[in-house]
Design goal:
Radius of gyration: 26 Å
CATH class of the largest domain: Alpha Beta
Bound molecules: phosphoenolpyruvate, magnesium ion
Strand content: 5-15%
Structural class: alpha/beta
Strand order of the largest sheet: 1-8-7-3-4-5-6-2
Largest sheet: 8 strands, mixed
Distance between the termini: 41 Å
Number of helices: 25
Shape: globular
CATH superfamily of the largest domain: Phosphoenolpyruvate-binding domains
Number of strands: 16
CATH architecture of the largest domain: Alpha-Beta Barrel
Number of domains: 3
Amino acid sequence: MSITLHGIGIGGGIAIGRAHLVSHADIEIAHYQLQPEEIPQEQARFDEAIRTTRKELETLWGSIPENAPAELGAFLSLHIMLLNDHTLSREPRQIIEVQRCNAEWALSQQLEILLAQFDEIEEEYLRERRSDVEQVAQRIFKTLAGYDASAHTPVSAGEDAILVAHDLSPADMVLFKDTEYLAFITDVGGPTSHTAILARSLDLPSVLALRHARELIDEDELIIVDGINGVVIVDPDESILAEYRVRQLEWQAKQKALQDIRTRKPVTADGVEVELFANIELPEDCALSIENGASGIGLFRSEFLFLREEDLPTEEEQYEAYRAVAEAMQGQPVIIRTVDLGKDKIPKWQEESDSPNPALGLTGIRLCMAEPQMFRTQLRALLRASAHGKIKLLLPMLSHVAEVKQTRRHLDEVKAQLREEGIPFDQDIELGGMIEVPAAAIAVAHFLEHVDFISIGTNDLIQYSLAVDRNDDAVSHLYDPLHPAVLQLLRHIIETADRLGKPVSMCGEMAGDPQLTRLLLGLGLRRFSMLPIQLLKVKQRLLDVSLKDQEAVVAEMLKVSDNDTLRGLLQRLNE
Ligand code: PEP
Ligand code: MG
């Protein structure tokens, strides 16, 4: 009988193939008491398991194929780092001694403590690292149980195999590298888990968080994986199969059409030139940006360097990351946003915030003003990296012009220091400001006097204009990019920047939504910055449109407030 499962679709299209099940890593944990004299021996058994697991991971790391996504190596090193951390490799030894228990039990106790700590983390990206810790611990359990990973090669699967797993660690992915799978699905994994990130970069149809896929699907059973809608259909009947074969062909045709415009210049049918940039979070994202034809980086969210580590990143670490991006983009502009922490991005080294309302607290540029040492270290690293490419600086969460003036003073002082030390940097480095707070949007003319360019952060601009927390599901229906207040603010910002002759771009999610491309062009926007995977879809929306023909519809959209009328007009733009 056919069944349909729902999970998180990671994209990659549709696959139809035969299920290949891989075993669930969970192992029954035994618990037994030790005699005092047995403790050192048990601790030695645990140490040996850590050593073997480390060797195993290092061997896998060394065998990553050259064409594998860059993240694979990074995630595998993260697993080696986690394994080396004393919380996993040392604490269980203590537990063996204190509780006089076996190594497996000690590790499971320690794992429970660690996982409970992760559950309390509010920031989604960090909370998702829980599964990395779990995956590393599962490998240690396996080693303790005597499983020798190096002696096993995965069972080879047929040509149309779809991998069905409880979870897939980066190490599993290296092991499966020699087998060509059409798609993969897992029981667990969130939208920002490493499994999801790897799935996206492999560009295979994949659905995660299906909960019981491994139990419900039999080996070799026919399944459809719809990575676009997050659906898996087990044992489909002929009519469903036929329908999905058509959908698959449609999707492939769409992909081909997108690939065909990869090298085309983003110019509208009536000759208006547009620039499309990429938003990135890690230097590794540059490859995908270039592949999708980005004209540069419109937003590098530098805070991700600050969220990954236990401590503040050093000047050197930052310099290397900024330099890597500048060099990878080979002279194309790279806009690096200075650290935007606070709100939902709280780093490990920062004390739990006791702000009554973090979104209105010490966030973005405000935190940088309050922590001048941290800010100046970042400015130094950025300036040093500017000798290797076309770096521009961008300040987040501006609400007072004084924040720009103060930054310029810091910048001048850091530049003077570098000159004295004979360190090269771009003397004319540009300084831009994010317009994402309503106050800055309304008074944008004042900000434009002091910055070289502006970038509109619609994610926050909408949240603050409509008083709707962008992360709160309870009010997500009120988060509306088409709200008249938002459209009028956008028009005002773009018009003012044009009038004052300063470049304006947009780097919030609105810029990457192909449904909104023509509306934004109609509002006068010419520079868009978005996730690399959105670039071609947005380009497609602008290539065959004549802006002249759409002016009247956009003007009408700025006048109406009724939601249905607005949506109807938007549809007309998109026809
Ligand atoms: C924005 O607010 O639109 C933006 C681009 O910044 P972030 O999403 O990082 O807050
Ligand atoms: Mg923002």
